[in-house]
Amino acid sequence: VIEYRSADGRDERFPSLAAELVRLKVDLILTRGTSAALAAKNATGTIPVVITGVGDPVGQGVVASLARPGANVTGLSTLVTEIYAKRVGLLKELVPGAVRLAALINMSNPASPPQWKEVERATRSLGLQAQLLDVRKPEDLGPAFDGAIRQRADALVVGLETLTQANQRVIVDLAAKHRLPAIYASMEFAGGLVVYGVNYPDQYRHAASFADRIFKGAKPADLPVEQPTKFELVINTRTAKALGLTIPPSLLLRADQVIQ
Fold first, then answer.
1. pLDDT surpassing 90 at residue 79
2. How far is the C-alpha of 105 from the C-alpha of 113, rounded, in Å?
3. What is the reported pTM?
4. Domain housing 105
5. Which site from 46, 80, 212, 214 is most exposed, i.e. has the minimal number of CB atoms within 10 Å?
6. Are 71 and 161 contained in the same domain?
């Protein structure tokens, strides 16, 4: 029996959802994202928790260390924070004339401030200006894109967390409407120009192996948190054509998948 709960794009719902699962006395809790992981950890010290989609589990206080997570939490990290610099670099290759780069990020998520710092650091190193588009509810998305265009952003990095994940279609459509080249962290943003990140379906399948080991008697504290060893680059040439962009051949050669 699987008890599924969704925050519907609202991080503030995770604590009550986690508490509800604890009251139901489930045998294991599987989470995606930092806010969900923290909520589950805070809700129980005994029910095993398997995390996925957490960018910096040690830095965010989800586990004590990757090698020995301790307590009742283990699972998979996505190294989300560290690869924002790579996404900025890929955007610069795509839009070599770019001067100003915007980042669509929900700064109320505890994982987001370090990610924004990575974007800032990477843009400065490339001689670009960084613009933060802080979105905390769906109604913020339209005005954020308007602000990006008003301040003449040349490209966009889209953060990945509860709000943006729940509004994937809206964000991809707004990027197309405003003709703003954007890079995403997940293939779930169907139709997006470029995706660079871990393969989330693979992560979820791998999370099942953690659950299997725990159900067979392993303790979460003794199962090291695993980090991704491969990141996927996916380029949508149809979207590029609609934006009037020419993808550099060198970038196409490095792509794991080209959508035409």
1. no
2. 9
3. 0.83
4. 84-197+232-259
5. 46
6. no
